Amino acid sequence: MSLVLLSIMAAVWPSSAPTVSERWHAWPVARVFPDSVPGSSPSGARVTYVLAGVAPEAPCRRAFQPAAVRSSCRTALRATYVDSTRTFVVTVGIAVLASRTTTATDPGAERTAGSSADLGFGLAAGPSADLAAGSWAGVVAGSWAGTSAGVVAGSVAGPGVVLADAGRPATVRPVAFPGGAAERFGDRQYFTGVVVDSDERYVVATAAGYADGRTYRPGDGAVARLRHAARQLATVLHQALTR
After folding, report:
1. How confident is the model at residue 165 (pLDDT cuts 50, 70, 90)?
2. CA distances (Å), 197 to each of 39, 108, 145, 226, in order?
3. Where does residue 191 rank: exposed (0-12), middle (13-18), buried (19+ CB within 10 A)?
4. How far apart are CA 85 and CA 127, in angstroms?
5. Residue range 13-29: average pLDDT?
């Protein structure tokens, strides 16, 4: 069959869209982690979350704190965003699940409802704007230039919440990127976190802190804008993958 005829047939009968469970590798990286995510502050003011960088696909236990990892996690993806004021930094982790599960005995951060799931991810890398589908392993280092069935934010423990230490929920491990507002973001710098948990094939977790690199100390709280950013990014990226 000629290439011309094959091209015509492809145009007339386009390939079917990937199923929800396959979107994480069938979609371009830039669709999973957009260069910018529109949002709002608690007061309703417009906010834009700008991508600082994307981490390569990595094992679940490398990307999430031990208390946040579960057995059904296949693999994980991470990216870090900075808000448009360059005040807050949020790492988003997507846990790709091998199968649906209905137990809820191992929460990965603060959640109130939804089924349990498993988490994962890894190494720092640069912006994802021009990466092709399935290219997580090839992400290179660089600088920055659904449903929400169970969503809770904050650094105050609630029933069934596993804490990473005194006050902070166990969640995705932060990823820093050199040369920008996210360059000092790490395990000691996150203040709060959110998990979006549903019966789909993904759990999306966030870890949020301050772009000035301040270190969390037991008893420190998180301002409403930081908690809101953690919740908003987790919810938006989860919905994009699952709805």
Report:
1. low
2. 20, 10, 32, 20
3. buried
4. 19
5. 85
Residue 181: partners with Cβ closer than 8 Å, 6 or more residues away: 52, 82, 86, 89, 144, 211
pLDDT of residue 16: 77
Q: What is the reported pLDDT for 2?
A: 54
pTM of the model: 0.74
Residue type, 6: L
Which is nearest to 185 in space by CA: 101, 127, 124?
124
Q: Which residue has the tokens 């603060």?
A: 110
Strand partners, 193: 207
**23 phi/psi in degrees, rounded to 5:** -60, -35
Q: Provide the token pair at 62.
A: 């490398």
* E-strand stretches of 181-236: 190-197, 202-210
